[in-house]
Amino acid sequence: MTRTKRAKLLVSATIAIIILILVFGTLSGEEAVATDFGAKNLSPSAEHIFGTDWLGRDMLSRTLKGLSLSVVTGMAASAVSALMALIIGVLGASGGKRIDAVSGLLTDACMGLPHILLMLLISLALGGGTSGAATAVALTHWPGLSRVIRGEILQLKESPYIKIASKLGSSPMNIFRKHYLVHLLPQLVTGTVLAFPHAVIHESSLTFLGFGPGSGEPAIGVILSESMQYLMTGTWWLALFPGVSLAALTMLLFAAGNSARILLLPQEEALAAGGNKRIKSGIGRRGTAESRRLKGNRQSQIDDSDFAGNGEPEPASGAVLSVRNLTVSFPKEDEAGISAGFVNGEASGETLKGVDADLRRGKITAVIGASGSGKSLLGEAMTGWISETAEVSGKICLDGEETTADRLRALSGKRISVIPQRLSGLDPLRKIGKQITRGDGSRKAFERAKAALAKVNLDERLMERYPFELSGGMARRLLIAMAIFDGAEIIIADEPSPGIGKEETDRILTYFRALADDGAAMLLITHELSAAEKYADEILVMRSGKITDRVSGDDFRAGRFDNPYTRALYDAAPENGFKMPESEFADFARGETL
């Protein structure tokens, strides 16, 4: 039996037992308080399975009634506590430094006081009783879960798939509903279920100490407290059966809480089974990522003033997206002392230096160069999605008019679409179909999603699967399908081919060529010189943050270029014999790779 099946069985059994306790507890209400002095202190028997107490009351009825009272109290207290944890956790992670500091101080104060003492003080201040005990439990069980939720939100804010969702045009509310809530739900449900047994035990503890329901109510704490004075008379069953029943219930609830997480996180089953449950497909090498560490816990953004006009030449005729004298700088070190910008693996203050580039309708512009030369950073800057630590100057124009980073980000997923380099752009907890359609459940969106998958040779049945079930190559093709879903007219493709076989790569690049021929403007960032050579209309060669050469596709295919660095890159490609560069490019030979 798999872990998932065992978890389903345990959770189902727990729910059934709780329902039975509530039903029988309700039905045994009168019997639990009815006295029969002719049947006092009877030991367990067929007629009285748990025996009777000193007033002749049936202990099974009293135990069921007490457990039902504890279950109801525990449910209410854990639900209120979980709601408090959610509110305080979200405010702490999203409300700014001051609100985070206040929520942190409140959390630390609540966790710093002895738990039982804090509950006693709250219950005493509220006058005790069932409501006082329930309120005391609810107000003291949220800090741990609140910290988990806050940490989860801070981590999610920097997750690639959250940023990719923004780049593909998802609204902040849609991102919150479709990504944040999906990831917070397992933590919230598991925390609530695991708080449930704590609430049951602590409610019983408060009642046992005299700060809960009065002696007239058949609560478990009352039963155990009253039984203490009769243990010396040999009536051991008065404490044993209620105590064992309470312990068994709390242990069952703890186990159910752990099982609930397995059901809410379906990928855990795959990891437990070996971690590589993938659909059969070719899995090639992974692309080499740009070496760059970026600072900050907020989503990357640029102010409207980041791109300022500087009198540079206007965009070329026919250009839909252009940059002029674009310079992107990072501080040598961030506040934590970590280098923020890298060029060829070395910390650098500048990573783009006065770059001019144009994307034209109907054309594919390829950017080639060694790792760390600034290719991916150019794509990020041209779409407005760049680290908040960056200092950006220069001018960016859309349709010939200077624009802002905010406007570019607003067009993400509409006019502008990004194919990310990293596979971590896929949300592991959302089905593939929902990620492609961005939560649109309409029939029209479903048909468009099928068409997008077909363009990259993926079966429509994958829409009911999760990303962890895909191979690396299939996941990369899925990212491409997500980018072309809405028919954007400007496409930034950052290393779209690693992990995909040659046949599939040619198929996808042929489709890119068809998109361009239909009027789309495309920036193809690639290490594959053969792809740039075969499909690009213009090739930009980058080195150390600068464009060192511009070659038309026809000239590149014919070998008509004089720039020595371009020649070094061209000769070093596998299809051109891995020729070593000249001595003037010793740094290229030491560390730069295609």
Describe the structure.
- The chain starts with a helix and ends with a helix.
- The protein is built from 22 helices and twelve strands.
- It has 594 residues and is α/β, with parallel strands linked by helices.
- Helices cover 50% and strands 12% of the residues.
- The chain has a six-stranded mixed beta sheet with strand order 8-9-10-5-11-12, sandwiched between helices. The protein has a four-stranded antiparallel beta sheet with strand order 4-1-6-7, covered by helices on one side. Strands 2-3 form a two-stranded antiparallel sheet.
Tags for this model:
single chain; 594 residues; alpha/beta; six-stranded mixed β-sheet; four-stranded antiparallel β-sheet; 22 helices; 12 strands; 50% helix; 12% strand; elongated; disordered C terminus
Strand content: 5-15%
Our Rg estimate from Cα atoms comes to 32 Å
Distance between the termini: 48 Å
- DSSP helix count? 22
Which percent bin holds the helix content? Answer: 40-55%
State the total count of DSSP E strands: 12
- Contiguous low-pLDDT stretches (5 residues minimum) are 267-311, 333-349, 588-594
Shape: elongated
The overall average pLDDT, rounded, is 76
Largest sheet: spatial strand order: 8-9-10-5-11-12
Helical/strand content category:
alpha/beta
Largest sheet: 6 strands, mixed
